[in-house]
Automatic annotation (TrEMBL):
SUPFAM superfamilies: FKBP-like, GreA transcript cleavage protein, N-terminal domain. PANTHER family: TRANSCRIPTION ELONGATION FACTOR GREA. NCBIfam families: greA, PRK00226.1-2, PRK00226.1-4, PRK00226.1-5. Signal peptide: none annotated. Gene3D superfamilies: Transcription elongation factor, GreA/GreB, C-terminal domain (3.10.50.30), Transcription elongation factor, GreA/GreB, N-terminal domain (1.10.287.180). Belongs to the GreA/GreB family. This is Transcription elongation factor GreA. The gene is greA. One of its GO terms (biological process) is regulation of DNA-templated transcription elongation. One of its GO terms (molecular function) is translation elongation factor activity.
Length: 158
């Protein structure tokens, strides 16, 4: 079975979503289905079919979250000694060697990745290029527009 690396924050977010789905949405949908059933003929009852469809999606997401949580390896990077090396969960500041533009990313699991929040999936090209490197190293990232060189400015365990 595949294990999924996950940060503490990512695990907490999944647990919160699971709690919301099971304690809020599931009972609400059951009630909506019951109310829609009372409206009569189920064949032509749009409210009933919509609620059942949404219930199916919620149940699928609950099963997905439970599977992810069961196979998650939660890594708390704050408990790992700082060596200046890029590892899963670290926050990395990199600078484009050509333009000197600096950007900071956290390397996270697939479920947590969100480029707008500057969270990169551990499987992304940039993260793969950074993992295992040290502060001060220069890495080359292959992009559709060509190779880009970045210098690792700082690695933080936050």
């Amino acid at each position: 079975m595949t294990k999924y690396p996950m940060t503490v924050q990512g695990a907490r977010a999944l647990e919160e979503e699971h709690a919301h789905l099971t304690k809020v949405l599931r009972p609400k949908l059951s009630q909506e289905i019951g109310t829609a059933r009372e409206l009569g003929d189920l064949k032509e009852n749009a409210e009933y079919h919509a609620a059942r469809e949404q219930q199916g999606m919620v149940e699928a997401r609950i099963r997905d979250i439970e599977g992810r949580m069961q196979n998650a390896v939660v890594i708390d990077v704050t408990t790992i000694a700082h060596t200046g090396k890029v590892i899963f969960g670290t926050t990395v500041e990199i600078a484009n060697c050509e333009t000197d533009e600096s950007v900071t990313y956290q390397i996270v699991g697939e479920d947590e990745a969100n480029i707008k929040q500057r969270k990169l999936s551990v499987g992304s090209p940039i993260a793969r290029a950074l993992i295992g490197k040290q502060e001060g190293d220069v890495v080359v990232v292959q992009t559709p527009g060509g190779a880009i060189e970045y210098e690792i400015v700082e690695v933080r365990h936050i």
